[in-house]
């Protein structure tokens, strides 16, 4: 079997035929797998590996199970489903395995030939999908790194061995090479099982793509010394927020790439995206055997009984990923993520004294979720990694996350549930906070009317010359403040997109984060004018003119 011409997974009269990846690069030996147990063992032992490849192998396992549990033309569906569950559980981190098994199980009741037809359709799709994703990724890389031959770093193995055909990240390298855009590929050896050294170097040599092998720990130094223009990797699972589970060592590459301003591109099929999983914190990371670390090739490299930490994968936060590319093109881009913009505005507000210490928060809505600054963090040191994603419906965090949402999240979600706002800014500027404290009521919302100041035009009020700013009591239970705001906004659909909380600050919202920030700034400036002039209207009355001697 010549892997650059044929699929790495084929069906031969009831048997799955593939290459035993454990033997490469020195021995190309064929595996013929005819039972469910043999397929499970091959997946667990990494004879077959790579998220798309184990998915297709798992689907062939369901074909074998269906054949084994069919008698007189009748399929024992419960038995086949039980076997399918065993296959899907063979490796927990890569989502493609469970996805592929679920897909073909839907055809089990129709018989083994229907399951086989579905599996063969998946094989054909995989080739088309990989080529499309690889082409989109190559287009992106050339846009990000134009006008020069590229030095690309890659990790683990993402070629035909890891899929059924062409490859994902290596597929992108092949497309770039076809376009004459590759100067050199730096291949991480990928400890502890050396998939980069054994498999990727072998595939690149087969394809005639220039490459060098390096130890994993040299990758950051290669970036620091100008030897890397772009990092391209594959993925085993991509969560809804863009977090990426991939071979251990990927996270470190992403951190180094971010530090050195190098694009970090993830290439994977849509089947690797798990939109049912909110964040990477929920991914089960497979732990491999200690022997993979304490020895190699049958030779011990560590003292006997040495304890080992050997995760097969790590999870790279989405904010470190430049883009995720699938057959549909760019499906996630860090340029679109609001974390950096939120953090930048928070630091700006902190510098102005409007978000002192850990006070205040900023959020951006995305569908049923909102991204908001985490609780208990100095706004002067905030980064994109300090954001929390919450449900707009109930203010609770989405999945398990590194940061916790503030109690003031309820203020933001109250706005989102009653207004078509895309962003909310909640800050504590001195003039507005003072004015609303002096004019608020202790137990019910009230309003402060201001007229004829030019700044009213910047607040989004219906009347550009008059605004009634709602002021809410500051309850110790912040959720009660949120409930008051939600009730008021529901009952007053024409209320302006700004409000005050006595002793607590101001909240403004808008169609985007810049507009919300601008409205908050205008509100503070307006309150300063009111405080300095002592008037809530811009035009002086006759008595006021007489008092200041302007007659």
From TrEMBL:
GO terms for molecular function: lyase activity; metal ion binding; S-methyl-5-thioribose-1-phosphate isomerase activity. The active site is at residue 236. The record marks 156 as: Transition state stabilizer. Substrate binds at residues 49-51, 91, 195, 246-247. Keywords: Amino-acid biosynthesis, Isomerase, Lyase, Metal-binding, Methionine biosynthesis, Zinc. Catalyzes the interconversion of methylthioribose-1-phosphate (MTR-1-P) into methylthioribulose-1-phosphate (MTRu-1-P). This is Methylthioribose-1-phosphate isomerase. It comes from Nocardia arthritidis. The gene is mtnA.
């Amino acid at each position: 079997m010549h892997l650059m011409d044929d699929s790495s997974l084929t069906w031969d009269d009831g048997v799955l035929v593939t290459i035993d990846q454990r033997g490469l690069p020195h021995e190309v030996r064929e595996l013929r797998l005819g039972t469910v147990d043999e397929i499970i063992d091959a997946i667990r032992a990494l004879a077959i590996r790579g998220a798309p490849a184990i998915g297709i192998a798992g689907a062939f396992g369901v074909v074998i199970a269906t054949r084994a549990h069919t008698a007189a033309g009748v399929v024992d569906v419960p038995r086949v489903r039980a076997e399918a569950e065993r296959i899907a559980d063979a490796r927990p981190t890569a989502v493609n395995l469970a996805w592929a098994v679920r897909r073909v199980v839907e055809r089990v009741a129709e018989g083994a030939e229907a399951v086989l037809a579905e599996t063969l359709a998946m094989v054909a799709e995989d080739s088309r999908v990989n080529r499309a994703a690889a082409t989109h990724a190559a287009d992106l890389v050339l846009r990000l790194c134009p006008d020069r031959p590229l030095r690309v770093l890659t990790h683990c193995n993402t070629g035909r061995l890891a899929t059924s055909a062409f490859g994902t990240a290596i597929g992108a390298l092949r497309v770039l090479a076809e376009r004459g855009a590759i100067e050199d590929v730096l291949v991480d050896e990928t400890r502890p099982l050396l998939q980069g050294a054994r498999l990727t170097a072998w595939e690149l040599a087969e394809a005639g793509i220039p490459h060098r092998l390096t130890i994993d720990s040299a990758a950051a130094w290669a970036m620091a010394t100008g030897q890397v223009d772009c990092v391209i990797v594959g993925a085993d699972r991509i969560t809804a927020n863009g977090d990426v589970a991939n071979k251990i060592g990927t996270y470190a590459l992403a951190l180094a790439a971010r530090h050195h301003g190098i694009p970090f591109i993830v290439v994977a099929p849509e089947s690797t995206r798990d939109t049912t999983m909110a964040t990477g914190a929920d991914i089960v990371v497979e732990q491999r055997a200690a022997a993979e670390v304490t020895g190699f090739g049958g030779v011990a490299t560590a003292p006997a009984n040495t304890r080992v930490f050997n995760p097969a994968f790590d999870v790279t936060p989405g904010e470190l990923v430049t883009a995720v590319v699938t057959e549909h093109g760019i499906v996630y881009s860090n340029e679109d993520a609001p974390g950096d913009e939120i953090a930048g505005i928070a630091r700006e507000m902190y510098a102005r004294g409007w978000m002192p210490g850990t006070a205040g928060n900023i959020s951006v809505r995305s569908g049923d979720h909102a991204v908001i600054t985490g609780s208990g963090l100095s706004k002067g040191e905030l980064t994109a990694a300090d954001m929390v994603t919450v449900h707009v419906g109930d203010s609770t965090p989405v999945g398990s996350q590194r940061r916790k949402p503030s109690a003031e999240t309820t203020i933001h979600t109250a706005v989102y549930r009653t207004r078509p706002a895309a962003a909310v800014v909640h800050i504590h500027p001195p003039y507005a906070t003072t004015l609303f404290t002096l004019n608020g009521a202790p137990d019910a919302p009230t309003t402060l009317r201001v007229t004829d100041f030019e700044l009213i035009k910047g607040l989004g009020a219906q009347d550009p010359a008059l605004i009634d700013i709602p002021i809410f009591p500051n309850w110790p239970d912040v959720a009660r403040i949120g409930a008051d705001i939600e009730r008021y906004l529901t009952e007053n659909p024409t209320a302006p997109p700004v409000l005050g909380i006595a002793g607590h600050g101001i909240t403004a919202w808008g169609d985007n984060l810049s507009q919300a920030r601008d409205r908050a700034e205008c509100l503070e400036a307006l309150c300063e004018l009111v405080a300095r002039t002592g008037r809530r209207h811009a035009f002086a009355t006759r008595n006021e003119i007489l008092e200041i001697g302007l007659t």
